[in-house]
Amino acid sequence: MLKTLVIAATLITMGFYLVIASKKGVDETFWLNHDGIDRKTIVHLPPKVEDDSKLPLVFVFHGLLGNANYTKNTYGITEISDREGFIAAYPEGTGPLKSVFLSWNGDFCCSYAKENEIDDARYIVELLKELKRNYPVDENRVYLVGLSNGGMLTYKLVSEYPELFAAAAIVSSSPAGGASEDEVCRIEPPPKPVPMIIFHGMLDPIIPYHGGYSSASEETIFFPSIPESIDLWIAGMNAVELEETSLEGGKVLLKKYGRPGEDFEIHFYTIVDGDHTWPGREKGLDALQSSSKSSVKASELIWDFFRDRRLE
Fold first, then answer.
1. Domain containing residue 139: CATH number
2. Could you tell me if residue 2 is inside a domain?
3. How confident is the model at residue 284 (pLDDT cuts 50, 70, 90)?
4. Residue 257's beta-bridge partner residues?
5. Mean of the pLDDT values across residues 102-125?
6. Kind and range of the H or E element at 170?
7. How far is CA 252 from the centre of its chain?
């Protein structure tokens, strides 16, 4: 009798574990050769995919020296993918080693990718084509998310291929930089407006909010102020300020821009005590080092912003 109860309890426990585990999606490694380089993407599929359903696709680009696995496990997008039912793709940049110390070419930055003139924007467009062929992607609901150097690639993709993406998110990044204040390269705003949600910490030393030289030892780059760069993009997309809100007792400032009467907006979150980290991230070394006391969770706000936006 005792043995039967133990077996039954074990089966119930295993069943509970399987139910919990079934709520998690699966990862697949997708390889694509581009310009003679074999490049890796981790594709995360949500747990339930109906036979003929088309799913949103969210590209998530790591920061300088990052990789796909760390991004997948720490940014918080994977968990939302499982809950909300979209595909999350984590591409990798390039570098002298296989899957570490990677970078993206954002025109004025960074490292290996810039030095070797890697055409990352074109690579992502080709990758998108292949993912559409191999996965149930809703081509009207493709989104971009980029942190730091990955945000520079996001700006570049929005600038050059606005017709492909329904919305984009930028965390701790800039569309402009150069060797000095007199040598600034700017990624131009797109001819077709793309909804965007942007986060930047006012205490960021890597890409200074108020402008100046980066403190990163890997890159000596001058950045114009973030509000100045965003204002140029706002003007380039013929948008105007709609409202400004102070949140969390002044810890967070939110500005919304758009075109009155049109379904197009840009949301710009300034984290007053924020540094060069992903707001609200709970995993990874960066989360432990963050100075911010705000409760803003960038991943949740990004998906809320993306959810109902699609190409027309």
1. 3.40.50.1820
2. no
3. low
4. 241, 266
5. 97
6. strand 167-171
7. 20
